[in-house]
Design brief:
Low-confidence stretches: none
CATH superfamily of the largest domain: Glucose-6-phosphate isomerase like protein, domain 1
Largest sheet: 5 strands, parallel
Distance between the termini: 28 Å
Order of helices and strands: HHHHHHHHHEHEEHEEH
Radius of gyration: 25 Å
Helix content: 40-55%
Shape: elongated
Strand content: 5-15%
CATH class of the largest domain: Alpha Beta
Mean pLDDT: 89
CATH topology of the largest domain: Rossmann fold
Length: 299
């Protein structure tokens, strides 16, 4: 059975009077502080509530869980999106104070947090609105990238085509993206993704698109990537990393925000397309489902 923090706290609220006194203390703490409960180890929760760890374990068993960690897990999962901004970075400090491996992990994690934060800060709402308008108003929006950046373009197209059916990922086959732009015109737009070192193929595509009179949106770490490249809008992102390749976490965060705006702009038509895609995938067995358990014949 799946449990959400809301379901669990409501269950505790309804049954708290029937619990032993110390369990009541634990239940009230969980109801009042679900975020802290999801974050803290059992011993820390015990210290905060003034009860023993064993009481918390027994409360987990009473609610049908086979361990305290299983009981805490739904609260931890919710923290990933709902309360992360309120939790501070104590976890990062604790990680830095560990062994060399933990300290390295802390440095890498901090870098990714910085990259995402800076990229989102650079994503000015007016800029995002301009890009959204360009894409939604275009007859076709061609999306292109090469090498590692292709993963970003692929995902953006995969999800974005449900917001705008005119999205096309290029190059379609093993040729050049320019091949797929031969019939493009001023009613179309090109969304190009490239970061240092900049892709020659992507630069050629933008130059060709400019000759065709297309609107051009560029997602990159720089506004100036090569001569003869003159995008209408540049969406800047940070790619700073502590290894030998660019970090794409900031770019992905910005793309997720852009997707959100595209779906809002797409309105009910976009929601209907999502439903149709989902139904088609389910009908064709795209998603794994567990086999039904065999029936047991009753005697």
């Amino acid at each position: 059975m799946q449990h959400t923090p809301t379901q669990l706290t409501e269950q505790l609220r309804q049954n708290i009077d029937a619990l032993p006194r110390q369990m009541q203390v634990a239940a009230k703490y969980i109801i009042d502080h679900p975020g802290d409960f999801g974050l803290d180890p059992v011993r820390v929760t015990a210290q905060k509530t003034g009860i023993s760890s064993n009481v918390l374990v027994r409360l987990a068993y009473r609610l049908g869980f086979d361990s305290f960690e299983a009981f805490r897990k739904p609260f931890r999962q919710t923290l990933v999106t709902d309360r992360e901004d309120r939790l501070g970075q104590d976890w990062l400090s604790r990680m830095r104070s560990g062994d060399d491996f933990s300290a390295t992990q802390a440095g890498l994690a901090q870098n990714e947090l910085n990259v995402v934060t800076r990229s989102l800060r650079l994503a000015d709402p007016a800029l995002i609105q301009q890009i959204t308008d360009h894409m939604i108003s275009a007859k076709r929006c061609f999306i292109t990238a090469t090498r590692a950046s292709y993963a970003l373009a692929y995902y953006f197209h995969y999800a974005g085509r449900m917001a705008h059916p005119g999205f096309q990922l290029i190059p379609r086959h093993m040729g050049s993206a320019v091949d797929d732009l031969l019939e493009a015109d001023t009613a179309d737009c090109l969304f190009a993704i490239t970061v240092h070192p900049y892709s020659s193929d992507t630069i050629q595509s933008m130059r060709f698109a400019r000759k065709r009179g297309m609107r051009i949106v560029l997602l990159s770490d720089s506004e100036i990537i090569a001569p003869g490249v003159d995008p209408d809008v540049v969406l800047p992102v940070s790619i700073r990393t502590q290894h030998h390749f660019s970090s794409f976490s900031g770019a992905m965060a910005v793309l997720e925000c852009l997707l959100g705006h595209l779906f809002v702009a797409g309105g009910s038509a976009a929601r209907d397309r999502v439903d149709r895609y989902q139904t088609a995938r389910e009908d064709t067995g795209a998603y794994w489902r567990p086999a039904k358990p065999p029936r047991v014949r009753k005697r």
